[in-house]
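User: Please predict the structure of the protein below. I'd like the answer in structure-token form so I can feed it into my own downstream comparison script.

Assistant: Understood. Taking the following sequence of 1442 residues as input:
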Amino acid sequence: MLDLPVDPRTPQKKPLVVVEAVIRKLNDDYALGIGPTDRSLTPARRRQLCDQDERYARWDRIWRGIHILSCRRDGTLDQALVSFFNEAKALSLSWVPKPRADPGTIPSSSSIPKAQTQGQQYQLQTLILKVFDSYRSPIKLLIPPPASARSNGSGTGPAQLSASSPDSDYHSFPDSPASAGSKRSYDSDFDQSAKRFRGREVTRSPCPSPTPRLNLASALDNVPSRQRTTIRPADWSPERRRQEIPGRQPPLNWSPVHPQNGATPRRPPFDWASEAQNLNGAARQLSPPPNRLPEQQHQNNSRQQPGGPPKWPSGCRRLVVDRSDSGSTDSSGSTSVPSIFSENWCRSTQTSFGSESEPKRAPAGVPTHPSSSDHAQTSQIVSLASRSAYQPAALLGPPVPAHPPQSSNASVYFKFPDVDFPNSATQRLLFDRIDRAGASFNGELTPLQQRLQNILPKFPRWLHGAPLAIAWEITRICRHCNVDLEYLGLKYNPKWATSGMDGIWRDLNQLEVFRGKSFPERPAAEVFAAALTTFETRGNSVVMSAALEFNPDNTGPLFLLDMKPLRFDEGCRLTRRFGPDRFMEILVPSPNGLNAPTLVKEGGAEEIIKWLTQPHSLVGRQWQAFYSKDAGYRKPAKELRLGPDAKPSFKERVHFFAESGHNFRSATIRSRCDIPQDDTVQRRTSVSAGMMLDWLLQLEQNEGQPHLKLFSRIQLGLSKTQPTVVFEPDQIRHHSVDILSPIGKVMNDGVARMSRSVARKIRDSLGLSDIPSAIQGRMGSAKGMWLMDVADGGDEDWIETYPSQRKWECDQTDPLHRTLEVRSVSSELKPAGLNLQFLPVLEDRAREKVRMRRAIAARLENDLEKQFKSQKTALKNPLLFRQWVNESANGRSDRVRHGQVPFLGGLPENKGEILHFLLNSGFDRKQKYVQELAWELQKQRCDILRTKLNIKVGRSAYIYMVVDFWGVLEENEVHIGFSSKFRDDSDDVSYTLLADCDVLVARSPAHFVSDVQKVRAVFKAELHALKDVIVFPAKGNIALADKLSGGDYDGDLAWVCWDPDIVSNFVNADIPLEPDLSSYLGKDKTTFKELVHRTSDTGQPAHYAAVYDMIEKGFNFAMQPNYLGICTNYKERLCYHNNSVNNRAAITLSSLVGKLVDQSKQGIIFDSASWDRLRRELFGGKMHFEDPAYKGDVWGSSREPCHIIDHLKFAVAKPTIDRQLEALHKAMQASKSGDATPDEDTAYSWDKDLAVCYAHFETTAQNSRSFKDILTALKNAIAVVEREWKIQMNKSNRDPTANQPYPEKVRQLHAKWLAIEPRAIIRTGSNRLDYKTAALLEQPYLSERGAGAAATSNWALLKASTAFKIYFKQNPKFVWQMAGMQLAFIKAQMSSSGPGREQMPLLVTPLMYAGLMPDGRFVKQYMARLEGEGSEYHDLEEAQMV
């Protein structure tokens, strides 16, 4: 290499106004968004600010880059700005929104590319920095320059090139002020003088051309190609360049100066307008100097291996270019173009191209470049190493296109460009999975694959600093309002973390793009507050959930994403170990469902499952699906329309795990023991789903299990439980064998014991009033029931497990695997309903079938009449009415979960709580709105009775089954004890235990006639401590639980009945022989070990890799059509048709259904072909039966129903319900004149107490013009919301928002109701609201305490009273739903005042109100005293307490 003399120059300080003018021009033309930087700061202070703010650092680098390049004397800055213009235009091609996601539609644009979103701003800022780098960063000359360049007359000074050389004119390589040997660049402070170095090698810029050439080497990696890329010939002189660019005219102030005597030509100042006009969007490919081609071609050829794709240099981005239309005369057939914008810049700065005659093919998995005439598909010159779904964003650099180009490879399923992955073992494992997933790609996207793109929203950079809860809710709002997340006006406000959703909604509502749009349902305030901290509170975990629905359009994404508001739910072991914020649930339509699109039904189910099980990116995290379970189905609402009814929607519940994210840290994790324990929501560690499942299932110890059974065990880690006692290893007693019968049958399947001390600790941990006799829970790999050991008298903590409880081998080294997680406990028993499935069995096993039918019918009729009678009695007194409401609609679970009564607008969410709220506030039972609510509540209960026909039997209960470990019970004996008086409401008989009587025990579902058994209830003193459980014997050949539909003791409930009219008429049936169905049932016995051996890895990585194979296979198996429901329905119709449940056909189908219950665990294969063959061979080809009559609402026959369920529904329940409802409706008929003074027997709408506030203000307004204006403006504002209420609630409204659920409509309208404030409705005019009046109405000291306190301000009460006065009759539901809270406050004030009522209304906090429930004993005694029948003596129990 020839060393040339150099003349390093120190940049001269230009006036700052020059740099500021350039930045101002860039901001105006490109909307670059470069902010101001204080140049008066010291370099140390600027570096400090740059370290603190990445955006400020970027601005500072741009500022210094412009200053450095402007200090040169050869127009380098102008050259860089021209290159930036061309590169920006190439990049902007990906910004054009594609209508309906049509990949073949990209409108042309000739204007200067202007950023529209923050993401685009970031891309342009990063791009201009790279342009400056390219003109600043030197590379060494590989060959000597021409002789003319080596002589400059004096022998000193910079090397220069002659004008005749191909590298002349704008191919000159000017000196850089900071050379390769310099220790400073423009990233350091330019205020310091540049040091001169001698003897350095001459350097050349990797992008020497100052001409408007477009270097597409990296831009093409992110931009869809619309035409063939052309390699320009080596002759790239100014004349040739002007010929190549259509319409190109030189700037008016420029004339080329040909170098003379070796002088370097000068570039005139850059003219933005002419460049934008002359280039006109033309794309040009930079051609390198020809004197470098032969050597590079030799290097490239030396890397080429025969018979295979080229060997790409490490880290180099691969590019394929079709040069068939190139005008190049280069005989070498290969060029090398240095890509200054490649985010993984190859050290050699070379990118190989195929020859012109025979283009090199891309490696496997890289799409080929389409012809320029092919406008039907989107093409992209990109490799697996470019920013596609195959490569995480962190390895490629942060810029992300606002509209990423369609990728024509299989990796489109798992794009996550918004996630920066740490460099860790997790990341490498992810890449291995991605590479394997794309290995079989053939280069073409199917129509289904194309529609599986762009389903999840990208994560904008401006949200990177936001907490996960805010990112989730902002993304929900933007999607709901159809707002681009990269909209330029969106910026993260750190105050949102303390202002809650009110602040977020307020700030977003101020943006023009959100104006006039309705927001989605907001999360509860306490949920959002918990999500901002630890995602947990009071034993509840915050849950992120969403739903996918099939897109009704035939174009665009296949699924539409509906992100749900954050909510509370119980936690599980996995959330407690890895954090609730790392888990997400998505309801997905079953790909095999009846409502699936034709595209999916035609073989697309497997493709959807493959897409589901690949990594996905959402809210800045990379999610991996790891478990799926049937979520049931939802029947669409019936509509009066022509055509067939809509098909039910079957759903799958898919669980996702966040493997990594933009703020996750990396860690070396070699085993599950290395997973950090100190993670927080704000700082998580990257952990793969394979590692997470290995922590749960401990794969190496359990690789011998069938992979489908192992997959089903994931559910145990997701069970909603409460953690209680943590055991030490020596406190856990693992038995090696179960209790076996003489014939080897397990007698204690799923149940074990625990010490009394443990039971006491469970009581204290869960806040129970009594020590539970048994609990259902999980611990390690064990699941089932744990029974308190009645023989244990010590204080030692211990627990035992049996093999039937342990589902996999678990070493229990982690304390979480030694924690007893409680799912439920035995509690006070109550009378139970009779399941419909029991009715045919009871009738079949009855000695006298008519007497059995009459006994059940009598209980049904008595229960219905009692319910209606209690309501009629309740109408006589508010206390009785409130007691009836509490019995009819108990909302205790919601109160406990939320710590308060949840409100919807101005009233509680459910009808029962509304009635509680209004009655507590002093409203009378005769208030029309109250009566209508009571009517709706009772009618709702009756509709349920019509549909489900849940017959309540007073002497029956559902009880947990446990085993007699102490051997005191004989075969067919059971022990039942009650923790409190068990009262039979039908005859007011109470029980504390059952002894010496026959009882029926059954387990739902009951298919065989032997699934209901008559046994003897006895009392054993040894078992007296066991309450609220039924103890089955451990003696005999077959466990009693096994006789009941093949049940066990891991948490099954037994229906126990001791009603003598039913039990005495029952006869046991023998267990039928099980038919052989092996010819119709297959089984997948593939073990997890076999999956491990199929991988190409060894050791722990092989197990992790096999996990994802298990996940995909598990999803395929879990999402296959569910024949359990299909066979159950077929059996029900067949038995109804035959009017028998005890024949060969019924037994065969019952056996089949029993096996399909455990289909997912056992890997049973049963498909449509097997089902069709079974029906043809065993049921005479009868493929379908009509639905039973009781499935409908009308008995369509003149004869009496013969089936027992038909008889109970149409001959007993329906006439009784209709008769009682008619009588109740007459008793509650409201008066037509709502404003009349109500009498004793009429209901009223008008309540003068509620209009007091309005009346007082109206009287005052007569003497005050300002008050009169306020009242007028208030009426007008309320009228606007009321009109919108009518529009939204109108069922004939075709507006899309009218199809929203009622709660969402109410929340949106209530937000507008709350926005009616004095300052908002009176802003202008001579009577503008003054400060004092506003303060008097708004009471700012209340609003400062939050929306809850402001709800009782003078203004809030006046607004509610005004709305009631105007709309109490014409739109009462609007008034109550918007202002019910304030109306209740006014009513409580007015009801507590007046003659003889000197007490003020008592106020309670939301938490205390949630703990208030009606006291039945107080109501009973108070009513007796009113009727003159009360006693001055207390109850015995109360006297003892006193």
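That's the full token string. The chain has 49 helices and 30 strands.
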